[in-house]
TrEMBL record:
Pfam families assigned: HTH_Tnp_IS630
Highest taxon in the source lineage: Bacteria
Domain Transposase Synechocystis PCC: from-to ranges: 1-103
Lineage, uppermost ranks: Bacteria, Pseudomonadati, Pseudomonadota, Gammaproteobacteria, Thiotrichales
Protein known as: Transposase
């Protein structure tokens, strides 16, 4: 869970004003000691990376409809990207990987 900036500032300010230890301030505010240490180093939470995708999601959706049994490496070759890129894009589309319809014992 990400705490707001004002809460982080309040925790650090209380620690400094009342000369509390890390454990004492963590106990008072019900947060982990590691969080207080981390906030002392960097107050701002990390920003998420917002990078556009290399693949056209509509084209990938059409490819899944046209080739439902294709493997990731086959799709990756068609689109010119990595298998992990295909895997991530399919996950964003909500497409799960191929599964066998029979249980492993019944295939023996």
């Amino acid at each position: 869970m990400t705490y707001s900036r004002d809460f982080r500032e309040r925790v650090l300010k209380t620690r400094q004003e009342e000369n509390l230890t890390l454990a004492e301030v963590a106990e008072r505010f019900k947060v982990a000691i590691a969080s207080v240490v981390r906030w002392g180093k960097v107050l701002e939470p990390k920003r998420t990376r917002n990078k556009p995708t290399k693949i056209d999601m509509e084209a990938l959706k059409r490819d899944v409809e046209l080739h439902p049994d294709a493997y990731h490496y086959e799709r990756a070759a068609r689109f010119g990207i990595s298998e992990s890129g295909i895997r991530s894009a399919l996950k964003r589309l909500g497409v799960s990987r191929k599964k066998n319809t029979q249980a492993s014992q019944s295939r023996l």
